[in-house]
Amino acid sequence: MPDNHDYRKALHNDIDELRVEVVRLAAMVGDVIVRATEALLSYDMDAAAELIMHDDEVDALSIDIEERCFKLLALQQPMASDLRAIVASMKINADIERSGDLMVNVAKGARRMYGVQLPPRLRGLIQQMSDEADRLLRLAVDAFSDRNGPLGAALNDIDDRLDLLQAEFVQAIFEAHAAGDIDLQAAVQLAVICRYYERVGDHAVNIGERVRFMTDGRLPEHEGAARVKARQAMAASAERFGVDNGDPGEAPDSP
Amino acid sequence: MIVAPAVVLVALLAGLAGWVIRGSVVRRDEGRLARAEHAAVEAERARAEAADQRLQAVIDAVPQGAVVYDRTGRPTMGNALGRRFIDARHRDALVELAARELVAAVSHNGAHAARRPVEPAGTPRMVVDVQARRLAGGGAIVLLEDTTERRRLEEVRRDFVANISHELRTPIGAIALLTETMVVEMSAAVTAPEPVLRLANRLHAEAVRVSRTIDDLLLLSRIENDEEPVREAVVVADALVEAIDRVAGAAHERHIEIRLDLADRAVRIRGDRRQLVSAVFNLLDNAVKYSDANSLVVLRTLPVDDEGNVAIEVEDRGIGIPARDLDRIFERFYRVDQARSRRTGGTGLGLSIVRHVAENHDGRITARSCEGEGSTFVLTLPADPRSRSGTVAATEVA
User: Fold this and answer.
1) Nearest to A141 among B87, B90, B96 (CB)
2) A139-166, pLDDT tens digit by residue?
3) Is the ipTM of this structure higher than 0.90?
4) Among the partner residues A20, A26, A142, nearest to B87 by beta-carbon distance
């Protein structure tokens, strides 16, 4: 049937365009990651101010993407993988937009840190965290654009490196503060800033999970939900058999 | 009667046959028509395909990245370089984003073309010059050019000039100042050995010369790298008077008279006043240096010619320039007579500065000369059309 065929084609074109828009949004935010770090490390207040302004453009594109999703859901009644692609895009859109906000926070942090001379070790770690956050976002976008479920699933483990860097950074803050290189205010600011990078990594992991949902319909939350159900069942049976098992422990991961 | 039904039958048969035959003829006609139609459609399609292929070949031949967008703003075709940015990711996606914005701008607004450099953050550095041009019949073509290397070189050059200024000019300035002090001190002292005083004088003269060369080099590269040229109305006569003032000292020393001869006092050009003064000064400075003492240098302007250009002439009665050197005197550091040039304290950059000023103002510099009689340099610049005597009065009234 020509009608049916056209309907799918139009939908698929729209989903393709949606994908391109999401990739563009991610490119904008990736750019912001690099620039925010540059502003922070080079004490460039103009660049920081520009980034804070620029966030409006990121938001505008993000809202545009969300509206596209709503329209597709409402008008095209997508099914199965098409539906998952649209829902995933919507969620990924939010993750990317939030990452952009976090980097704007870094730019604002750069303003608050103005005049503080950062010790080289802290500068180096900030650069590494930034590079890592940027890399994770890129990998997440690659996974999304290529519909690469396994890569999406791997992001959780890839993110470990950023988590380690953050832990190392916090340790370095303590040391720098103890050595009298930075005052308490700066130390607190830095601790907050490193959280922003770490959160971008978490958003990338989220995107990876959404990609996995998009490609094969699996969601990690489902596994968590399954664990809750298993725990409840165990508790119920324990009650029934009079066994005191207050801590059911962690249910084994489903295969 | 049996005949009647037979006749009827025959008639019927004949009718049927006729109908069949007619039908087949019609069908045959229809078939022929359809085939002809089909052939026409095929030919049309082949033509369209050939046109498309030709267009694709044209786009492939564009040295930059090229992408054609249709009237709805979607990319329809592009060459290999351009396709890199369609459906691109990461940093390349920002280039495409800019391309789409420019396409939208030239499609909706009055502007026919728009361009913007895009420089995504991060390493390696990447600068892509994106320009969109509206196409007749809707849509636009986008040209993408990787200008990373060019930008880098420009910056290296700019930095180099700034560094020269700092690293060379400052110490040379100090040497000039210190040797001057030495000369003054030693001239005052009674016991100063004569050779030391002479060497100190030489030292001072050389330091001043190098310092002047550096100044000229800096001026030259400022003129060359003029990214946002000044375009103000400059009254040519005022600029000439200023240039004469600057050279007056040197002219007076050699008893050379400079005569100013203006065809039109009001004529103006659109340009950079400082550059114009410096160009004319360099021409006059040369004329004074290479003229015999007690001679005459004429600075004149000619009436604006039919093409709207004003010519500024500097004529001297000096030694002249050999014909074989005339083509090369506008090159940097080119000297007709090395020894003489050093004696007169020339930097070898003066005429090069004049040439760049002329080029910056869409004008030209030419020279004619006869050895032993003198030289005439002609700086031709487009006159400000509103400045011609008649129209000036009109605008002033208005």
Assistant:
1) B90
2) 999 999 999 999 999 999 999 999 999 9
3) no
4) A20
